[in-house]
Every structure is written in structure tokens, then in C-alpha cells.
């Protein structure tokens, strides 16, 4: 390990042999950090926090602090971070609460820019990009490949489906279906993230079906239940690109942005 002499690492912490820890960082006793990870200077990692392999955590981050929830009473809740994440300056990720699953989870291959806050019990998937100052309130769920524009704020318990994207300074008060682009305060839909889907290898025909699902949801004058039934009827093995809608409809309870 390349641990700077000014860093304070509790002897009970589980640190892989090749982890680098920068000057004045503090690592608590219930922390584990996987191989290949780099922890910059002035980082505090505390609580019951596990960090996987090949992560880069930049200066002044606070990971694993107690949840900002007045009901929290010292329960041993956790923060779990996967592999290959980049976490830039001044990010704050909190542990979970006993009132939910007790774990805040961040998946793998995420790019998290400066000043991002991920509150207690949030569940973040893989390959997400959070631009500067994006903020998740408690209990938020973020699907794979989601992009949050700078200063996006997401209401507690909201869900943002896979491949969705928000514009700068979006205020998300309800659930955002997969593939949808959203903007504004309060956030409203503005088409699908077609360019992102092209870059991820979706075929023109798959994108056409996803766009048709969007039109069913927002442009045909159907009720939410009617639109949902129509999309579910279209989804299946032959149209696997619509499966994110199936997963979203199973979870969504707050209503969708309109």
C-alpha cells in the first residue's frame, strides 16, 4: 500500500495491498477498499462502507457518513460502491437507514462529477454519469446508463429509468420513464435519448420501437394505465429493448413526469 504518512487509516480497515491513500485522508475501522483503488488527499471514508476495485476518489469527498435523517439512531447501515467508478471532488455519499433496505448502493463504471450528493438508501445502477452538483434525495433509484445534467435535483423516492437523461438544472419531482429526456422545473419530458442509444449500439429499428413507446405514453391521449398496458403488450423476447419499460412499470409508484 502507498499510504501517505499524514493519512489516518484505522488498523481494522480492510485495504487491498496496492491501494493508494493520499495526504490527510481518514479511513474508518469498518471500511473496505478493493484492489487498484486510489483515494486522493483529504478524503474521509467512514461508517460501514465497502468500495470495490479500481475506483478513483478525488480530494475532499465524504463517503459513508451518517444519513441526514432525523430518525437515524445509530444503526449499522451501509454504503456499498462497486468497481471502476470515478468520484470527483467534494462528493457526499451517505449510508442507508433502518426504515429502508439499510444500504445505499452505487454500482460500477459510473462517472460522478464534483459536488454530487447521494443521500441515504439511494440505489444507483451502472454506467451512469452525474454532472456537477446533481443531488439525489433519500430512497431514489437510478437505472443503468442514466445521465443527470448539472444541478439536477431528484425528489425522494423518485425513480429514473434506464438510459434516461435530464438537462441542466432539472427538478425531478416524479418518476422518469426509461429512455426519456427531461428538462425544466418541474421536469417535463422532451423525447427520447436517441443519440445516446445510437452510441450504445441500439439499432434504428430498436430506436423506432422505443420512440413509438414514448408516443404511446405521451402523445396518443391515453391514460397512464392504458399506455402502460399497450407498451407491456408490445414488450417480449422479440422486442427486448422494451424490457426497461417492464422493469420501470413494476417499480414506479409516484406517477410519471408529464
From TrEMBL:
This is Acyl-[acyl-carrier-protein]--UDP-N-acetylglucosamine O-acyltransferase. It catalyses: a (3R)-hydroxyacyl-[ACP] + UDP-N-acetyl-alpha-D-glucosamine = a UDP-3-O-[(3R)-3-hydroxyacyl]-N-acetyl-alpha-D-glucosamine + holo-[ACP]. GO terms for molecular function: acyltransferase activity. Residues 175-257 form the UDP N-acetylglucosamine O-acyltransferase C-terminal domain. Homotrimer. Keywords: Acyltransferase, Cytoplasm, Lipid A biosynthesis, Lipid biosynthesis, Lipid metabolism, Repeat, Transferase. The gene is lpxA. Belongs to the transferase hexapeptide repeat family. LpxA subfamily. NCBIfam families: lipid_A_lpxA (TIGR01852), PRK05289.1 (NF003657). It comes from Pseudogulbenkiania ferrooxidans EGD-HP2. Pathway: Glycolipid biosynthesis; lipid IV(A) biosynthesis; lipid IV(A) from (3R)-3-hydroxytetradecanoyl-[acyl-carrier-protein] and UDP-N-acetyl-alpha-D-glucosamine: step 1/6. It holds the Pfam family Hexapep. PANTHER family: ACYL-[ACYL-CARRIER-PROTEIN]--UDP-N-ACETYLGLUCOSAMINE O-ACYLTRANSFERASE, ACYL-[ACYL-CARRIER-PROTEIN]--UDP-N-ACETYLGLUCOSAMINE O-ACYLTRANSFERASE, MITOCHONDRIAL-RELATED. Gene3D superfamilies: Hexapeptide repeat proteins, Udp N-acetylglucosamine O-acyltransferase, C-terminal domain. It is found in: Cytoplasm. Involved in the biosynthesis of lipid A, a phosphorylated glycolipid that anchors the lipopolysaccharide to the outer membrane of the cell. Its EC number is 2.3.1.129.
Amino acid at each position: 500500500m502507498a499510504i501517505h504518512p499524514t493519512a489516518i487509516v484505522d488498523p481494522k480497515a480492510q485495504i487491498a495491498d496496492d491501494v493508494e491513500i493520499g495526504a490527510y485522508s481518514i479511513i474508518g475501522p469498518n471500511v473496505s477498499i478493493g484492489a487498484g483503488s486510489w483515494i486522493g488527499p483529504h478524503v474521509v471514508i467512514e461508517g460501514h462502507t465497502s468500495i470495490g476495485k479500481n475506483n478513483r476518489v478525488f480530494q475532499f469527498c465524504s463517503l459513508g457518513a451518517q444519513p441526514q435523517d432525523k430518525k437515524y439512531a445509530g444503526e449499522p447501515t451501509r454504503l456499498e460502491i462497486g468497481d471502476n467508478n470515478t468520484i470527483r471532488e467534494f462528493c457526499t455519499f451517505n449510508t442507508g437507514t433502518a426504515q429502508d433496505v439499510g444500504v445505499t448502493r452505487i454500482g460500477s463504471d459510473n462517472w460522478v462529477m464534483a459536488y454530487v450528493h447521494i443521500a441515504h438508501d439511494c440505489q444507483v445502477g451502472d454506467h451512469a454519469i452525474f454532472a456537477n452538483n446533481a443531488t439525489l434525495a433519500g430512497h431514489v433509484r437510478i437505472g443503468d446508463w442514466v445521465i443527470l445534467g448539472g444541478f439536477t435535483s431528484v425528489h425522494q423516492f423518485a425513480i429514473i429509468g434506464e438510459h434516461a437523461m435530464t438537462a441542466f438544472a432539472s427538478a425531478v419531482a416524479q418518476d422518469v420513464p426509461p429512455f426519456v429526456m427531461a428538462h425544466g422545473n418541474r421536469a417535463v419530458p422532451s423525447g427520447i435519448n436517441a443519440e445516446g442509444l445510437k452510441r450504445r449500439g441500439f439499432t434504428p429499428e430498436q430506436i423506432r420501437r422505443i420512440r413509438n413507446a414514448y408516443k404511446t405514453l405521451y402523445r396518443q391521449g391515453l391514460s397512464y394505465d392504458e399506455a402502460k398496458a399497450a407498451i407491456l403488450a408490445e414488450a417480449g423476447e422479440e422486442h427486448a429493448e422494451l424490457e426497461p419499460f417492464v422493469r420501470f412499470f413494476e417499480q414506479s409508484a409516484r406517477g410519471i413526469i408529464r
